[in-house]
Structures are given as C-alpha cells and as structure tokens.
Amino acid sequence: MTVQKPGSVAGPSGDNGPVRYRILGTTQAFRPDGTSAPVGGARLRALLTVFALRPGRTVPVPVLVDEVWDGDPPADASGAVQALVGRLRRALGPDAVASVDGGYRLVAGADDVDLHRFERLVGDGVRALADGDAAKAAVVLDDALALWQGPALADLPDRTAAAARFEARRLDACRARLTAALALGQAEQYLPELTALCDAHPLDERLQGLRLRALRDAGRTAEALAGYEDVRRLLADRLGADPGAELRALHGELLEGSSPPPPLPVPSLGAPPPDPRIGLAASSSNAGRADISAPPAFEERGPGRSPRRGNLRSRLTSFVGRDAEIDTIRGDLTSARLVTLLGPGGAGKTRLSQEAGEAVAEAVPDGVWLAELAPVDDPENVPEAVLTAVGARETVLRGAGAEEMRAVMDRQDDPVSRLVEHCGRRRMLLILDNCEHVVDAAARLAERLLERCPGLTVLATSREPLGVPGELLRPVEPLARPYALRLLADRGAAARPGFDPADDPEAAAEICRRLDGLPLAIELAAARLRMLTLRQIAERLDDRFRLLTSGSRTVLPRQQTLRAVVDWSWDLLDEEERDVLRRLSVFAGGCDLAAAEAVCGPAALEALGSLVDKSLVVAASTDEGKMRYRLLETVAEYARERLDEVGARAVAERAHLTYYRELARTTDPLLRGPGQRAAIALLELEYENIRTALRHAVAERDEQEALVLALSLCWYWQMRDLRSEARTWSTEVKELGPDPFTAPAS
Fold this sequence. Notes:
This protein is α/β, with parallel strands linked by helices.
C-alpha cells in the first residue's frame, strides 16, 4: 500500500489524525512520515483491528475480550485488555487510545482507516458512474481497490462473517470498475480480468452479464452467445434455476444483434441497477446516487423506521449481528426476483426479512409489503391473506359510488386475479413470511405473481424451499458467538436493568453455545434473568423446554416457548421423517450417510433430504468431499424426547453402538500402515460418536462390545497422547468383568 502523507484529516480529537491504519491485509499502523509503527504480536494486532473497525467509537471491554481472544478469554480478562492497550499506546503514542467509561476508543477518524476510506471511495466512484462520468469513476475505483493489500481483517481471530461483508464490497467495487471500463470502450483490454473473475465466481450473474457485454462490444458476439449457453447450463446444473431477467434480456439483444443504449447499468452497491424489466433491479432516476454506507461491522442496528410506502411496522428492539446478511440479501434482490430465507424455527428469518425490506425500501417506489402467513390455517386462504396485506381491497373500493361499489362486490374475480391486477402495474417488494405450513399454496401464488407482474420481487421466509423456478435460496444461520453474546446482553439488560454478561462470561458463553445461537431461544433465556442468574439458567438447559417458556405475549403462540417453536416443525413432518429424526438424536457430533442408514434404516436417504430442506438437519461437506449431517442441540434434545415416547431409544442406541464398534475395529489396523493419516483423521472425526458408543456399552454392561471398542482405541489413544482417557475407559471396562487376558488361577 502506498502510504499517503497526512493532510488536514484528523481524528475526532485532532491529536491522532496523522496516524493511518491498515486492516485490508496484515494489520499495520503508519506514522506521518510513512514509517510503520511496531505493532507486533497476534493479540496486539487483533486489538488494533477491533479498534480500527470502529474508529472514534467506544468499544466495551467485553467486546474486546470476546473478539481478541475469540471466546477463550484469560482468567483476568479486563487486566489483559488493559495490558494490551498499554502496549498499543507505547507503539502508537500515549494519546492514540482513549480510556472511556466501560471501554476504550481509538482516537481516529474513519478516513484514517483503509477499510473505511475504501468504502468512501467506492461510494464516490459509483456516484460518478451514475452521473455518466466513467473516467472519474475509473480513477476513484482504482484508488479504492489499490488499498487492498491482503485478506480483510487478517489478524482478527474470528474474521469469517465480518470479512465476508467487506470481500463482498470488494467484488461490488470490481463490478463497478469493470462497468466503467466498458463505458470507456475498453472491453478488449479488460476481458481477461472479467474472465478470471467469472471463473472465480461462476454463479454471479452480474459478472457474467458484464463478460457477455464485453465480448459483444469487442465484436465477438458469437462467443457471447456461446457464453450465455454455458452460464444457462451452469445455473441449471448447480442451482436448478434459469438465468435472471437481466441476463435473459441481454441474450435477446445478442440474438437481435442490437446494442443497449448507453450508459451501462451501474452495479448495485446497496441500490438496484436501473433496469425496469425486473423487480428490485428497477431503480428510480436517482438510484445511482443511493447511499452505499452500512453500519460498521459488529454494530447493532437500532429499531428500524418504516418505509414511506408499504406496511412494515417499526421494530421495537435492536437488530444484532446480521449486517453481512443484510448486504447479501440486498444484492440477491437485485439479481433474483424470488429470494427465500431458509432456516430453523427461531433463527430470526422474520426479523431479517423485515430489516432487508427496510434496506431496499428506497428502490421500490410502490413499497415493501409484508404478508404474514403464520396465522393462515387453510392453504386456500393464502391469496386472500396476501390480498389483505397489500391493501388491494382498499385500492379497488376507494372512491367508488354506490352503483360502482355494488358492481365491484358482485364481481366473481378470484383473489389471485385481483392480486395480479393490483401488483401488475406496480414496482414493489412482497415479503411472504412463514410459508412452510402452506408451502405449496405459497409457491403457486409466488410463481403466478412473478409471471404476471414484471415489477414485483418476492422475499419469502420458510423452513423449506418453495421450489419455484428461479428461486434463490439464502440460508439463515444461527448467530455467531460474539453476536449471540451481544443479543443476550441487550435483551438481558431489558429484562433486568444493570445486567452485564461479563459478571459470569463462562455461563453466558455456555448459554449461547447450547442454544445454538438461535435468537429466539436466547431471547427466551434472557427473559428468565428476571428471576434466575446466568449460572442458574446454564445449569437448567438440560431441561430447556420447561425453562424457556416466557416469550412475548404479543407474538403467535408458536413463538412464545421453545417447545412450541420445535412442535411447529414436528407437526409438518410425515411419520417416516419423524422416525428418522428421532433416531438421528443418538448421534454425537453428526454422522455421514452410511452411519445414518445403519441407524435409521433404508428410509434415511430420502428422509434426510427432506429434513435438510425443512431446516431440521444441518448438512455440510467435509474436506474429503462427503456430506455430514447433524442436529442443532435444541432439535436433538426434542428428538430424544420423542424417541423415548415411542420406546425406541434402546434399539437406536444398539444400532449406533454396532456401527461404531465396527468402524473402530476395522480402522485400528490402519493406524499401523500406510493409511495412518487417513485413519487418524477418521477416528478424530468420529471420536464423539465412538465415545458415545463406548459409554452405551458400559452403561448396558455389555462386556464384549465395550472390550472390543476399548481395545480398538488403545493405539489411537497412545498416538494422540490421550492417557487420561485411556485410563478412565480401561478402568470402566475392567469393572464389567474379569480381564480376559489374565492367566487363569491354578
């Protein structure tokens, strides 16, 4: 990075402006003369990264502890932070970090940090592009991209979620820069870079569209047409989807040999590109000037404000830890007309959809409309519920005379036709919330509306996909640990003024971990702080369904208790799916397909796919290219209760024990051969299941099975230096019966 000499830029207090900070790459600090300040040591760089993310803002000590030590703080966490801050002051100057009540503040302005300077420059570049000044945009965007000297937040221990947001910004900036290049007639020059980006992001339709435009502008229309076919096949094979409206329109232009009127669409950075053929991708005349700023990483949003049109209500609580998701969904809505937020009950899909709707409200002149489908019992009533939500009845009847009103009321139009009539002439976003129990009806309605209403975009929330062509699925993951802790702190303070999770950080972390980072579960736990301490709540989580029963009185009954949340999903399963889910609860640490089939029977394959679709089973690929399946702890506990209800626990545990006994027995010899590394990796991956199997064998006093397992693990225990584990299990197994290797008494 070329270090810029300080000018008039100063920090908030004016005393640290000359120091510049780099967090787009290895964290560094630069003095006014361009020399690097000595910021040595991983912890010190992590601390500076956390500060630089929030220049000029107070960072509470608990946040510093959690982010610098990644959830594994030292015994005297506050003292350790104080010592680190002292080291940072010695490196940067005594006034570089200010002590404030409850935390510390980096005395710097946003422009003193390369990441925030990058954000500002990208905004300037996009605005120049929207104003038709492609040359200025190219220069400014080049300056912005040159600030990147490595991975974002490289020295932050848990960087994944925050870094993903800024990496997405970087890709947005690349799109904008390439758009400027095409507007300047530099298609041939930038084709190699475009091709490389498309290879790295093959499913990015906006990048693919830029590449096809570049090929056409370079006089290579035949290659552009062939490239479109490649993209179409790729989307079909990988996503089961067709190209979006913008790519299809470009394909039509290629077939006709026509060229689009200049300028090229400006890539969206928080506002949609100006293309009236698709829902949110159509923008008003000033969309290119939209503010691209977003809340800084790790910062909560306050209660939202309702958009100027639509029926979104103001939210009454803060929104925690989903900034990256908001940015992602905002981008999704510019490239797809149906986006479905998928996740288990209590993951926060409803709130996320409303915040995302708020974020794009300026791009839809006819508003963001929320249709809540949870109260709908009969699938036939879904169109009526949506009709009411979007205010279509008021639109039909307003201002009508008596005769006209009678004529309207006598009409036999079905609600779907009236919805098409209402939405067909509007540019709007429709949020279909909680589709899972009426998923077929919601899917049919969404498909019909999208086919007939070109200015409509649909954002759905569901525990399973709608299965409509062109649907973009966006999983809603549980909150990462820092955000889960912040949510607990926020809701806990509301329930018990003065509450501070730092009073018992271990219990707070245990609650968030055992509740899987599910926002609803954490909020229910926080409500218990009116009568219990953090430690008391943590100790009672083995009986979480009786503990977490104090939800808001104003929400639907299925959201008032943790059991009701899972009951709702359970009631939507058929008997085969229920049987497999019950049996999956005996696994520890997940399983692969072979293990699932061994324990759950031949129905496992089909049922697993359905349970994954319904967000009750989490599927993730391993480094070896296989899939593993696991249950969230809350779902696992619920499934174990159901397993006990039908009296099938013993059978499932015996099948589990048999499978993992054989896995341990057949893997043991491989530890002493050329396949040693793979054997160790397999036993490490499955160790929790193997240990659970051994525990079952000991509990059932099954001497033979326990002995086979213990003997099969001896070499592994020795290689991994698990001597304490080996002694414990050897003692347990010996107590089941006489040592078979002891010589018989004479």
